[in-house]
Amino acid sequence: MEILNLISSFLLENKGAVLWFWGGMGILNTLRPLFNFPSKKIYSYDELIKKTRKFNNLRNHWLLFFTLWLIFTGILYLLLSQVDKWSIEKFDIQFHPLITICASSLGIFQAVFAFSEDVFPIFKSWDFIYGEVEEVHKVAKAQLFIVLAVDLFSILLFFLLVQLL
User: Fold this and answer.
1) pTM score, two decimals?
2) Do residues 150 and 100 touch, judged by C-beta distance below 8 A?
3) Which side of the chain, N or C, has fewer Cβ within a 10 Å radius?
4) Residue 154 region by backbone torsions, left for phi larger than 0, else alpha for psi between -120 and 50, else beta
5) CA separation for the pair 103, 24 (Å, rounded)
6) What is the pLDDT along the chain (165 residues), one digit of tens a residue?
């Protein structure tokens, strides 16, 4: 039981561990699709335009979706900051899943973009994975499911760790 208390206090009170653990869970959601495509065909915007003219407006759509994601994340943060205040009042600990949820919201953006444009965005290099539409949509569905599952897991883990303190 002593080791669980130690782990709990480390993941909830150590500033470095909080950022790496809770933020890392969210960031891993955005990197997972890179390993999920059986045929990785990564294209830059210019290469994608040469391959097919279907993506002429992709850059404009990309900027629009990215702007909408930034606005969505800001609103999400403002809404969840109330939960953070409640957590501080009730448990005297910040609501660390807020970091996971905001970081993993990028995964939701990737999936929605993949559904609408039939290509999967990669943020590491601002390139796209292009392949069969069914394959792209299958990975996008899995992305949405995993992001929501990780967010729920982070919330449940937080309350479990708080109870162990």
Assistant:
1) 0.79
2) yes
3) N
4) alpha
5) 8
6) 677 767 777 767 777 777 787 788 777 777 766 666 666 677 777 777 666 666 667 777 778 888 888 898 899 889 888 988 998 898 888 888 888 888 888 888 888 888 888 888 877 667 787 778 888 888 889 889 988 998 899 889 888 888 877
